[in-house]
Structures are given as structure tokens and as C-alpha cells.
Design brief:
The chain is of the alpha+beta class and 157 residues long. The protein has three helices and four strands, in the order H-E-H-E-E-E-H. A four-stranded mixed sheet has the order 1-2-3-4.
């Protein structure tokens, strides 16, 4: 078995094998000429991935390379409570301030998104519902940011 693993380790690099999730691997999203800076937190990671997917088609009137920097603020608000004091309805809100900068371009703006959700009775159900709400909000927020960038760039002279 050890010989097989050693032989496999020697043969795989020779055949051009590259891990899919390695930096620069095939699982990386190519956002064209736009680099999205890392955003801290789990929600920031989800927002960055959604932005990379949205920006893969590019932006109008942008032929140079540019960097998109996003600052994210998240807030969870409890809206309704059960008689025992546990939350029954919550709202998840995210606000983003962003700046797209290149050699000849500078676009800034802000956007927000919000969703509400029912808190299930099951243990850990609240955590799962919050995670799901966060993922949905990051997708909507990414779409709004890219739509705003497209609009601003399309109207520039």
C-alpha cells in the first residue's frame, strides 16, 4: 500500500494534476478584469463569492483592471417573541459601502438588503435560520451592488 501511494504521489504531478480548490485552481471565479478584495467574516466570504459570480460578465465602459473594496455591516433584530421569551420572528439586515477603483475610474456607493424569517422550535433551528437568511441577503446585496455599478458606469461619459 505504501508503494502504491508513493508511486501515486510521483505520477500525479507529472500528469498535470492540480487541486481544484488551490489558489488559481479551476474552482476560482474569474471576475474578468475586476478583483474583489477579501471581506471579513462568513457573510463577507459569501458576499465576495456572489460578487465574483455577478461580475464575471464584466461591467459596461470598463476596459481596465479595477479593484472592488466592500465594507460590510450586519445586524440581527428580534421582531416577535413567544410568551416564554424566545424569539419567534427575526430580521437580518446587511449594509455595504463599496468603492470600485482603477487607473482612470473611481465609483463609490452603498447598498443594503434585508430579510425576515420565522425562528423554528427545534434546537439549533435559530442558528440554521440565521445562516440561511445571511446567505440569501448576501446574494441579494451582491446583485444590488453590481446593478448599481452597472448603472453608474453606463451613465458616465
Amino acid at each position: 500500500m505504501k508503494r502504491f501511494l508513493i508511486a501515486l504521489a510521483l505520477v500525479l504531478p507529472a500528469c498535470g494534476f492540480q487541486p481544484v480548490y488551490a489558489p488559481g485552481g479551476s474552482a476560482s471565479f474569474a471576475a474578468g478584469n475586476i478583483t474583489v478584495k477579501e471581506i471579513p467574516s462568513r457573510a463577507g466570504y459569501k458576499l465576495r463569492r456572489a460578487l465574483q459570480q455577478e461580475l464575471a460578465a464584466g461591467l459596461p465602459n470598463l476596459d481596465e483592471s479595477a479593484v472592488l473594496e466592500v465594507k460590510l455591516k450586519e445586524k440581527l433584530v428580534r421582531l416577535q417573541f413567544k410568551p416564554d421569551g424566545a424569539a419567534s420572528r427575526s430580521s437580518y439586515r446587511a449594509e455595504a459601502t463599496y468603492a470600485l477603483r482603477g487607473e482612470n475610474i473611481s465609483v463609490v456607493g452603498q447598498s443594503d438588503a434585508e430579510t425576515s424569517f420565522s425562528v423554528p422550535n427545534e434546537p439549533y433551528g435559530d442558528i440554521s435560520a440565521q445562516t440561511n437568511a445571511s446567505d440569501r441577503v448576501m446574494g441579494v446585496l451582491a446583485s444590488r451592488i453590481v446593478d448599481d455599478l452597472r448603472l453608474q458606469l453606463a451613465t458616465q461619459d
